[in-house]
Predict the structure.
Amino acid sequence: MDKDSPASPGRDPQPGALIRLRGLYPSLKTALKKVADVILQQPEMAIYASVNEVAAASGVSEATVMRICRILGFRGFQDFKIALARELVSPIQRFSEEVAEGDEPALVVRKVFQANIAALQDTLEVLNMQAMEQAAQVLLQARQILIIGVGASGPVVLDAGNKFLRLGLDVHCSIDAHLQMMAAALLSPEDAVLAISHSGSSRDAVETARVAREAGAKVICLTNNSLSPLTRFADLVLVTASQETRFRQEAMASRLGQTSIIDSLFTLMAVARPDKSLKNLAKIEGIIAAKQY
């Protein structure tokens, strides 16, 4: 599949057109970035302009404008404009601002909280609920689950393993590049991998997903970029939405979106098998309670 092609042409338009465009921006080719720049900088103009006018303003062909609409999951430019108009008429309320040098401590704290709230709102806006439901089922049915990630994704990997283990699932976590490749090579079609990478471009995560896919395992990826190399080897893609700023690197805001998705998967799996889940949770609670003073 072409890296810039949508996963399923002709699907129903997805919400959060601007949010999706910002998330995909780093992976877009030069001509597509020109269109994205015009839309992101002048969204109101794009609503009332024709495809010819947007193409002229971007300095590209009409076909390129249509291409970016399809990448975003729309059937055409008109569908994209309708979604964009709805987004601008009823925008998600947010008051996040860039942290600036000289800001008072209380203002810095307030801006960080506001940016985190915005990251969660944006992630919920672009999250594919059908993919979430399917991911929960894949994890529940897997003989064993391998959860992998490196760097800033490491804490989220360990958190996911901690939660899924409480449901009685056979979970293995790895944040070491070599160990996760070794574990992936031993997987079977009965197994599943959850690969976590904000950029989706980490060589270790991508190579591990490739090895797991070649072994026949089902691969679920959690990333901020639905066009990233990691998604090429994924059966299901779960997308977060966060923006990098000067003082707030992507690992800060993206972690909140990732953790919320993990919490949601945990809950979806728990309610799918309530009796077994509650029994396992009670056992673990009893053991943990015995270790407290």
